[in-house]
Amino acid sequence: MTVAVRTTERVGRPGSASGAARRRTGPAPWLALPALAFFAFFALVPLLGVVVLSFTSWDGLGSPTFIGAGNWGRILAEPLTQRATVLSLVVVLLSVLFQAPVSLLLGVFMAGRQRYREVLSILYFLPLLFSSAAVAIAFRSLLDPNFGLGAAIGLDVLSQDWLGKPHLALGVCLFVIAWSFIPFHALLYQAGVRQIPVQLYEAATLDGAGAWRQFWSITIPQLRYTIITSTTLILVGSLTYFDLIFILTQGGPGDATRILPLDMYLRGFRSFDMGGASVIATILVVVGLTMSLGLNRVSGSHRMESQQEGL
Amino acid sequence: MSAPSLHGRTRPNVVGAVLAWGWLAIVLLPIYFIIVTSFRAQAVYYAENPLSIPANPTVAAYGRVLANDFLLYFANSVVVTVTAVVLLLLMAVAASYVIVRSVSPFARRTFSIFLLGLAIPMQATIIPVYYLIVQLGLYDTLWALILPSAAFALPITVLIIVTFMRDIPKELFESMRVDGASDMAMLWRLVLPLSKPALVTVGIYDALNVWNGFLFPLVLTQSSGMRVLPLSLWSYQGEFTTDIPAVLAAVVLSVLPLLAAYVVGRRQLVAGLTAGFGK
Predict the structure, then answer these.
(1) CB of A310 within 8 Å of any CB in chain B?
(2) What is the model's pTM?
(3) Which of A153, A275, A309, B199 is most buried when burial is the number of CB atoms within 10 A of its CB?
(4) What is the CATH number of domain B68-277?
(5) pLDDT, tens digit (0-9, with 9 covering 90-100), for A7-35
């Protein structure tokens, strides 16, 4: 990602180019137009569209009609929305607190080069191959109170109705999300650790620093960009988790796992309140953008992150 | 040469190792459960221990899934994934070429737009995308999945290709320019061959995301003729509520193509997942 920033600088400073480069005209800009137009049409226009739609009344079938700020007042005042917002923030916070340290430690461990670690990292990778739908369906069966893990191991503790009890369901969702996404973040950390110069560790060893000291004084500081990238991905990704929770609980029991993206979907495509759903969507965009830009600002870099894992 | 062992010894081994083996169990248990259950007979599912090896393993569950249009859903997934990735790579390569080689403000702004695109939670735009697809008359067609999937993958794809293409030596472009080569010739004879590793990598990464996508199929298609694999799993769950072995056999079948791709191109795939982020 820092590499990308360097590219921007180079493009932005024609004066620093070589003499030969100054003479050349560069490629025809129209080559960038298809990508730009396509992205604008299917991603940027909808981004504006969601704001526009939040001021309309639309059932998803007919035509949207403008009703002003009505949706905003109505949706913001609803206890359901407030609950979903709090729930979303809890999910974001707990996801970061759980996934970030585990991924970091696993990644650091995987970066060692012994043979069995190679095998481990192959196995760790497996959850990435499963679609969210597959993961959610597998866990639904595994967590079945009568025929799942409880029946297998015979511990009463495991025979709970994991997805049917409000206070357990959210925790289960967070765990399944972690199962599914930690491998990706561990990979990022593995790649990050392998780029730390060995000489740093050699020098520290000569100075008598122990493993623990080296971890805090070398590994962690050297990984700071990876930490920022990965944490931002978890932050914004967890704000938009949809598939897993949708299939695991449909937002239930009651509204116990109805986080904002689910609230948006259920309002829009189940209750046919597209205007209200667009209010939620707008909030999601604003919060997501603020979080990732804010983290970039705090980190002092201009690195941008992706939401790929959330899709 | 003591460096490699030194490198290994300086890791926090105890915490790491305990966590590593514990996590391995957590990762493997559900996968093991999926596999053994998919080979269990429906009749004994409620009787046998869920984690035991089936007493009489059978592939009957796979038969029931395959008889249930699974191959159609599989074909739909292939069409959507291949078309989206090809479309996406064509556009992204051309745009990246301009971003890397042009000094114009237009190229710089193009790059900024894609960078900003990375920070936007695109899922939140699903309602206008739905509106757009309906207006275009594409609702409940495979194009409804191909076009938005390709568009939303553009930012990360452009970023990874730009990062890679930047390393192509300037001199190569300049000598081709001196020889009078057109943009197209440079793209075709220089940029594409040299960017191949990045294209393979990012292509696999995008394919993985499109193949596993759930929200677009859920919202933008309706009929079972347009169903793709992840959505078919969800609907199997509804149809086969009492036939868990069949549902899990469908899960196994849906993962197999990716597993095959993983076995063949593991290093490329892992490189792809880390290329855009790890540096």
Answers:
(1) yes
(2) 0.85
(3) A275
(4) 1.10.3720.10
(5) 333 443 444 444 444 445 678 888 899 99
